[in-house]
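Support reply, case 0932

Customer input (verbatim):
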Amino acid sequence: METMAERTAGFECVACTLDGHVAVITLNRPQRRNALNYQAYAELEAAFRAASGDPEVRSVVVTGADPAFCSGDDVGEIMAGPKAVSDTPPPKTFKPTPAAMAALECAKPVIAAVNGAAVGWGMELALFADIRLASEKAKFGELFVKRGLVCDVGGFYRLPAVVGPAKAAELLFTGDIFDAAEALRLGLVSEVLPHDDLLPRALALAGRIAANPPLAVQRLKAGLNRTAYGDPHDIGAWAIENIRDLMRTDDHREGVASFLEKREPVFKGR
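Our regenerated output:
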């Protein structure tokens, strides 16, 4: 069986290291505020699969290279580029986002060290973690509605369980951005720390978890997922189907254009 280091060697958008029994997965496109392009999504999926399958890994920390955690999709490539989903024929059957499922299905406990903006799919990534810690500089937001889209599986599957259905509806319907203090008040994060203390705190917590019997910890995680969240596959596939449909609307194109042109959008409901 390949180790995490072997499976992730040569990655460009995601850096993977092992600190004792703690895997550290770092989104590493700081010049793009760790926005995810196709390569980054593929590497992130592979990193979570590798960490989950490596017996030396007992817990995982996911974070971003400063100044951001993850600013969501790389709009210029994912939504407006030549390989944009709206320009490709729909599949016969829809499946959840592979990177999302890799994070959700990781057998090892995952801690998100949210060091800056976690918006759009970046907030989804934070939601996929079992525990979330935030820097005082962190910002959160389910921005999908601003691009004429719906969220991925995290917003539908985990956000209501974490903050309650009504607050989840507010965050999804408005796309509002909120700070770390509000995230703590909502229960989205367990702790807010000075920026320089965030990663050391996350690594220390991951180390404490990794010091426990790994099989028992993995069963605890599996039990929590079954009781707190249920099965994400159906909602993940439903989300992808609706994202693809909405990517073909004029409002989505206007959301992308207004973002790239740095102006207010004008949505027309078509």
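We compared this against your earlier run and they match. Two observations from our side: The mean pLDDT is 93. The chain has one domain: 4-195+215-261. Please reopen the case if you see a mismatch on your end.
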